[in-house]
Amino acid sequence: MVLLLIADMVPAMQQAQVLHIVDGSSRSRAEQARKGFELGLHCEVYSDAAELLAAPPQRGVVLARDDEGEGSAQEVISTLATLGEWVPVVATSVDPRPTKVVEAIKCGALDYLRLPLRDGRLMAMVARISEEADAFVAARRKVAEARNRIATLSPREREVLDWLAEGRSNKMIARELSISPRTVEIHRANMMSKLSASHSAEAVRLRIEANLTTSESFPIPQT
Question: What is this structure's pTM?
């Protein structure tokens, strides 16, 4: 897996950017570091992703190698979210296949770069991320926080939330789930409490912010 963290960004790019390059290949690490130094960037290198994620970045952007056997952008995004950290992620690949690009973007990657890195493309990405990073991080953190709250729901509570988002009443939900309206009320009350939602619209808004679909696979505790 290859990761690259660009930290301490400023819109005007008046200070040197810091590149934290993580790569299992010493040759690749050297090539990327050399490229960064040539462009006036400060570079730090790591032998693997675990070394960087042991102290996950809170600012900047992560460039994640997305080649089979080398790691994936989705893995990086998921790991950072699980750790409660969210920074922009840009995927990289020696051979960026369209399907992989689409998958990476869908899971939250901000961009996709071909390896070896090219001067113009790299600096254009750095400039754009410098301008958009704060807004992007805020948006992705909002999604992560909403998903983490929904992950506390039991399977049945999640089902109630899904049907609630479809505009179903308690009686209609009871028919859909083959349970009593009273049982729906109990699950609904527990769901609202876990989400710290004061009304149904707030619970539905959290589900929308989490960007979830009814059929989406989502880690929830089995109770």
Answer: 0.58
